[in-house]
Write a structure and sequence with these properties.
A hairpin with a 4-residue loop joins strand 7 and strand 8. The protein starts with a strand and ends with a strand. It contains no helices and 11 strands. It is mostly beta strands.
Length: about 120
């Protein structure tokens, strides 16, 4: 079974860049038809899709976050990463990485999530 694990700092100062990495095991991020996504949930709010990187390396972003979001990958480590620049306290959330299988249009595997707080 594919497993995803988020890692990164749990506290980031305002105006800094939030960087998270998702390590994928028992599955390859280059597997056809898969997208690897970042999704977050601010306190008291619903899930927000931030962006994704496709199995071929193409990237897709939420229009509302595109200007300060970057998703990249390291195929040698089977990892993909999120960078969110110029963060504000409104970026405080639980951040999840997840796999999306386009053939069935489903998110089939999720990381456990990591709490990131933006505060000085």
């Amino acid at each position: 079974q594919v497993q995803l694990q988020e890692s990164g700092p749990d506290l980031v100062k305002p105006s800094q860049t939030l960087s998270l990495t998702c390590t994928v095991s028992s599955g390859s991020i280059t597997t056809t038809y898969y997208f690897w996504a970042w999704i977050r949930q601010p306190p008291g709010k619903g899930l927000e899709w931030m962006g994704a990187i496709k199995y071929d390396g193409s990237t897709y972003y939420s229009p509302s976050l595109k200007s300060h979001t970057s998703i990249s990958r390291d195929t040698s480590k089977n990892q993909f990463s999120l960078q969110l620049s110029s963060v504000t306290p409104e970026d405080t959330a639980v951040y999840y990485c997840a796999s999306y299988f386009s053939q069935t249009a489903t998110y089939d595997y999720w990381g456990q999530g990591t709490q990131v707080t933006v505060s000085s």
